[in-house]
Structure formats: structure tokens, C-alpha cells
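R.M. (postdoc): so does anyone remember the format we settled on? I'll just put the C-alpha cells first.
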């Protein structure tokens, strides 16, 4: 099948390289950043599209909108696609944002943190999909199977909740690790000392309910330790607020 991509960020690189390696043909790349568009187009052996009006002229089977969530509606409003299936890749955006641009609409959302300088090559990345027509569904699934072995249908209501969970499990967890690294650096401690307990945390949740794995001063209601550690964070009020909120959630959140 043929496809075009609007965007040149992490998701555009992920989709483009995966689909081309799956023997689909990229026929066009559009981005406001024409230099970045040319680089991705060259990589995928595709043409650089110079203007959004020209996206329709390419007549790809699918056009992927790999742009920021806030830009989806604006970009879609510049498009008029008659035969092409238009697909966005956002977890927290409704398929209805595409309605003015095309008849056959879809969503393909990899539930994964994508970085174009370290693209994943494995096939176990879960991807949620939604389609407005049978044609869109057929095309989406064919493209999706070139990317992953784990495809599941998820409407907007499900996706937006899963997106919240993904943000908390990935983005928030990574931020907590950044805080831990900074604490270690400020106190001349090796961050590597924490790696075994971090690995243990994620190994445990593969096999048991995370709530049942909870240990530490919050779940024990060890007021002395909690107060001591809150005081240690006096010079980092944002971290202190995180510590307090997490403690409250552990104790009362369920």
C-alpha cells in the first residue's frame, strides 16, 4: 500500500521506517520545516511535499498526520481528501477532529514512548486503533500489521483514559527518576545504586498487582520517617509537593 506523512517528528520517523521496512511505499512527506521533510523523504525514498494543498494530489492509500495533538484540528482543516484514508496518531484526540478533511478516517496510536534517535525495532508495541468506515478499518489494519503484532480496537473514551495511564506510568515515572538522579548528584551518591530497586519494581509488576507490591513509609504510616524526609526536601518545594501528594495517594487513593 502507499502512504504519505504530515510531520517529521518522532512518530513520523517511527511510522515511516516501520512501514517502509514492511514493504509499504511512502510517496510523500509534508512539514512546515521543509529541511526536516527533505531528510525524512530521502530516508524513506519519498518525495518532499511543498504545500499542504499538494497532499491530496499524491493520492496515497493512507495519509498519517503525525503532528502534535494541538495541531491536528488546524492541519486537518487545510486538507480535502477524496480517496485517501486520513489517520491521526494521538491517544487523547477524538477521530472527529478529522471529519472536515476526509470521509474515511482512522486513528493509530502506539502506546509507547518514541524517540527518533532510538527507534524501537521490536514488534510487541501495543497499538490502539479506531476507524470510521470499513475501508478505513481495512487499510488501517493492513498498515498496523506492518508495525506490530499487538493491535486492539479503542474508541476515544477508552483511548483518553489509557493516555492518562500512559502519561502517569511513563512520563511521570521518568520525571521521578530524573528527580532521584538529581538527589543523588547533589549528595555525591551514584545513581546506579538505585538501579537494582528500580529494576525490581518493574519486574514485580509483570507478575503481581502493583497495589499489592507497595512498601515504604507511606503504606506503613511511619510518620517519623515521612516528616523527616519532607523536611529534607525543604529546598525543593516542587519535589516536596510531589512527595506529599504521592504519600497521600498511597495512603488514601484507593
Amino acid at each position: 500500500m502507499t502512504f504519505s506523512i504530515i510531520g517529521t517528528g518522532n512518530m513520523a520517523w517511527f511510522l515511516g521506517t516501520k512501514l517502509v521496512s514492511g514493504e509499504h511505499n511512502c510517496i510523500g512527506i509534508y512539514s512546515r520545516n521543509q529541511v526536516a521533510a527533505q531528510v525524512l523523504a530521502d530516508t524513506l525514498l519519498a518525495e518532499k511535499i511543498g504545500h499542504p494543498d499538494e497532499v491530496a494530489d499524491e493520492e496515497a492509500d493512507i495519509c498519517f498526520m503525525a503532528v502534535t495533538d494541538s495541531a491536528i484540528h488546524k492541519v486537518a482543516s487545510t486538507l480535502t481528501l477524496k480517496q485517501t484514508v486520513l489517520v491521526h496518531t494521538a491517544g487523547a484526540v477524538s477521530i472527529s477532529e478529522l471529519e472536515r478533511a476526509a470521509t474515511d478516517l482512522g486513528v493509530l496510536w502506539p502506546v509507547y514512548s518514541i524517540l527518533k534517535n532510538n527507534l524501537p525495532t521490536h514488534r510487541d508495541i501495543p497499538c490502539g486503533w479506531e476507524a470510521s468506515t470499513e475501508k478505513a478499518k481495512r487499510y488501517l489494519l493492513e498498515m498496523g500489521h506492518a508495525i506490530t503484532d499487538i493491535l486492539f480496537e479503542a474508541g476515544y473514551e477508552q483511548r483518553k483514559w489509557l493516555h492518562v495511564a500512559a502519561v502517569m506510568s511513563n512520563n511521570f515515572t521518568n520525571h521521578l527518576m530524573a528527580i532521584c538522579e538529581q538527589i543523588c548528584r547533589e549528595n555525591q551518591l551514584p545513581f546506579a545504586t538505585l538501579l537494582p530497586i528500580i529494576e525490581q519494581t518493574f519486574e514485580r509488576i509483570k507478575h503481581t498487582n502493583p497495589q499489592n507490591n507497595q512498601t515504604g513509609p507511606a503504606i506503613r504510616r511511619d510518620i517519623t520517617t515521612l516528616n523527616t524526609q519532607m523536611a529534607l526536601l525543604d529546598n525543593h518545594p516542587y519535589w516536596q509537593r510531589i512527595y506529599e501528594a504521592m504519600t497521600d495517594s498511597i495512603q488514601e487513593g484507593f
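R.M.: ...and that's the designed sequence above, right after the C-alpha cells. Also worth knowing: The mean pLDDT is 95. Residues 2-154 form a domain with the Rossmann fold fold (CATH 3.40.50.720).
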